[in-house]
Design a protein that fits this description.
The protein is 40% helix and 22% strand. The protein has 11 helices and 13 strands. The strands form 3 sheets. The chain has a 6-stranded mixed sheet with strand order 5-4-6-3-1-13, with helices on both faces. The protein has a 4-stranded antiparallel sheet with strand order 10-11-9-12. A 3-stranded antiparallel sheet has the order 2-7-8, with helices on both faces. The structure holds 2-deoxy-2-fluoro-alpha-D-galactopyranose (GAF).
């Protein structure tokens, strides 16, 4: 990372805002998900990798219980809150407006307090953030903001939290304080990924395996294509997908859809039909169960040292997101179709859907032609030009 976007710049930003030197500087990355979409809240499998793009925080503790938050990326001044007064949106007290972006770090402080980790007068802090994770691109800029906050406070207050525990507290912040019903993938990716690896995660018990993912050694590249669209539909539709999955699991008498085995899928779908469950919900179930299987397939192929062969599995994952889970959109479909027609090995949407980004697996020698084909297709369709960059598997949250 160049110092232009590194510790020097965020330290200077902190100094300018607060007039003192920070106690330290921390970084937490955004992510792309290689495979395993909308499986995390079904207790299933995911396989994200961290991007080189990070949210940086320069921070110092305070002893008066005051929390001061400032972003170098968002216009506006310092947001000042009292730790003991932080109130989640979901408790019915009407504390809904936490000031946009500041709700994420404030929610993390709230979650630490609720867990009994910040007590008494302690727990105040001053933080200044600067991020290179594109926002609204489905690349987990919010999780990066949460995880960098928790990682900084963990060190400043010597809380002794492990990266998975940090991820859980950040998910709690987002679910209960901000009010977004996300799963655990993004926070785990930001907290736990390591350079040169994808993270194979079991979202039920958080067991994880770092899977070597050295694309350059195999003459491959993974491109991120940020479509630069975010459809309004997204927010309510995420909660709606989650509710449908949970209802189907209840109807089947299992704890989560992860408990429906791949070879028992047809029987489970027939049982749901018999119970009067609608065709849409049955398609949602089929996506989740087949997607868990695709994660296992990708793992098997990577373990066998055959990265190229994961391409068709990625493309099949996209078809399932598009047709069964219905979370794609015209722009994402256009990336996948165009990239594959132009010689990519496979492509799919990544993240929550309804816009955001796609990933494209491509031989290094074809990367330019594929990028050009996608950009041209966007021009012809009248879409804004997409932003395309390589996903280099990078490190999770850390002190700098
Ligand atoms: C979003 C959520 F935050 C994740 O938890 C996950 O469900 C993902 O959408 C879809 O796989 O990024």
């Amino acid at each position: 990372m160049t110092d232009e976007h590194g510790p020097g710049r965020v330290t200077a930003g902190f100094r300018e805002v607060y007039g003192t030197e920070p106690g330290g500087v921390w970084a937490a990355p955004g992510r792309v998900n290689l495979i395993g979409e909308h499986t995390d809240y079904n207790d299933g499998f995911v396989m994200p990798l961290a991007l080189p793009h990070t949210c940086l925080a320069a921070a110092s503790p305070r002893t008066d219980g005051v929390l001061r938050l400032h972003s170098g990326d968002v216009p506006g001044g310092v947001v000042e809150l009292r730790v003991e007064e932080l109130t989640p949106v979901a408790d019915g007290t009407g504390g809904g407006d936490h000031g946009g972006w500041a709700a994420y770090p404030a929610g993390v402080v709230w979650a630490l307090r609720e867990a009994g980790l910040l007590t008494g007068a302690a727990g105040g802090a001053e933080l200044h953030f600067e991020s290179t994770v594109p926002t609204g691109a489905g690349l987990s800029s919010s999780a990066a903001l949460e995880v960098v906050t928790a990682t900084a406070l963990n060190d400043l207050y010597r809380l002794g939290l492990t990266p998975p525990r940090i991820a859980q507290l950040c998910q709690r912040a987002e679910n209960a304080f901000v009010g977004v019903p996300c799963g655990i993938m993004d926070q785990m990716a930001s907290a736990c990924c390591t350079e040169g690896h994808a993270l194979f995660l079991d979202a039920r018990d958080l067991t994880q395996r770092q899977v070597p993912f050295d694309l350059a050694a195999e003459g491959l590249r993974l491109l991120v294509v940020d479509t630069r669209v975010k459809h309004e539909l997204g927010d309510g539709a995420y909660a709606n997908r989650r509710a449908a999955c949970e209802a189907a699991a209840r109807a089947l008498g299992v704890r989560a859809l992860r408990d429906v085995p791949f070879d028992g899928l047809e029987a489970a779908l027939a049982e749901l039909e018999r119970l009067g469950c609608d065709a849409v919900t049955r398609r949602r179930v089929r996506h989740v169960v087949t997607e868990d299987r695709r994660v296992e397939e990708v793992i098997e192929r990577l373990d066998a040292g055959d990265t190229r062969s994961i391409g068709p599995v990625l493309t099949a994952g996209h078809a399932s997101c598009r047709d069964d889970f219905e979370i794609s959109c015209a722009e994402l479909d256009l990336v996948v179709e165009t990239a594959n027609a132009a010689g990519a090995l496979g492509a799919r949407m990544t993240g929550g859907g309804f816009g955001g980004s796609a990933i494209v697996l491509v031989a290094e020698g074809d990367a330019e032609a594929v990028s050009k084909a996608v950009t041209e297709a966007f021009g012809v369709a009248g879409h804004r030009a997409p932003r395309i960059f390589p996903a280099v598997p990078s490190s999770g949250a850390r002190g700098l």
